[in-house]
């Protein structure tokens, strides 16, 4: 029996708004998507900020690494014009501000925080993020994921029941055992894994499958048939 497929907006409504900005998150909320996925890194002064790349070059009018700027410095850059000049007021959001916004909305959304520790192992990012979640009172609505398994192990050591998704690319059945070893509830995988025998095995072993990044809505049906729980898409709008 197939479950109901849930839609998470990948980097917010990033197909039509500048990714990982409040404009993209607000637009995602308006679509009625059940969740938002976003990427977290740390600034030089230890502020958790929402941005995908380690460098600000692609998505702002600045250059250089996130880790080399204080939040005060980073907040000056325009994070919207690269996408469209009409978004020139957008800034790199602080995670704290985003979480506050989530608590202020009428509808309850889920949030997948992807900790971007692939290139830099931002020291203390796990505790920083867990503290912000706790302060916002949002623990029941958060899923933490990362490509870096050491990061996820640290999250689990610090918090014994927050929801964790083990994120990876391609077909790698070893992730099933890894996920179980830290009591993760899901694998965050791409379509190739979800539709492989590894996907069936993961579900048989009690893991949920959450699939990124599915931008062709025609792919939703086969994923639902494969008992995928969530698809992450840049285009979370409803299809008529
Ligand atoms: O969390 C799923 C997906 O966002 C992982 O890839 O590069 O878009 O962060 P990326
Ligand atoms: Mg991501």
Structure report:
With 240 residues, the chain is an alpha/beta fold. It has a single domain (6-233), classed as TIM Barrel, CATH 3.20.20. Helices cover 30% and strands 18% of the residues. The chain contains nine helices and nine strands. The protein has an eight-stranded parallel β-barrel with strand order 1-2-4-5-6-7-8-9, surrounded by five helices. The chain starts with 5 loop residues before the first strand and ends in a 7-residue tail after the last strand. Bound molecules: SN-glycerol-3-phosphate and magnesium ion. Magnesium ion (MG) binds at residues 37, 39, 114.
Features:
240 residues; alpha/beta; eight-stranded parallel β-barrel; binds SN-glycerol-3-phosphate; binds magnesium ion
């Amino acid at each position: 029996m197939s479950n109901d497929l849930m839609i998470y907006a990948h980097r917010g409504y990033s197909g039509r708004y500048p990714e990982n900005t409040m404009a993209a998150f607000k637009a995602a909320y308006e679509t009625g998507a059940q969740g938002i996925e976003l990427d977290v890194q740390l600034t030089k002064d230890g502020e958790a900020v929402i941005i995908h790349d380690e460098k600000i070059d692609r998505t702002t009018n600045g250059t250089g690494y996130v880790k080399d700027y204080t939040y005060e410095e980073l907040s000056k850059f325009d994070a919207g014009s690269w996408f469209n000049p009409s978004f020139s007021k957008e800034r790199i959001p602080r995670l704290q501000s985003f979480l506050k916004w989530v608590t202020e909305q009428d509808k309850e959304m889920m949030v997948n925080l992807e900790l971007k520790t692939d290139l830099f192992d931002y020291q203390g990012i796990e505790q920083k993020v867990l503290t912000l979640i706790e302060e916002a009172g949002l623990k029941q609505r958060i899923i933490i994921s990362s490509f870096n398994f050491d990061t996820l192990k640290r999250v689990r050591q610090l918090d014994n029941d927050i929801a964790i998704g083990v994120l990876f690319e391609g077909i790698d059945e070893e992730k099933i055992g890894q996920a179980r070893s830290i009591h993760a509830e899901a694998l965050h995988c791409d379509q190739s894994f979800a539709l492989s025998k590894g996907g069936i095995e993961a579900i048989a072993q009690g893991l949920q499958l959450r699939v990124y990044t599915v931008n062709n809505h025609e792919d939703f049906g086969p994923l639902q048939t494969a008992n995928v729980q969530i698809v992450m898409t840049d285009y979370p709008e409803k299809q008529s």
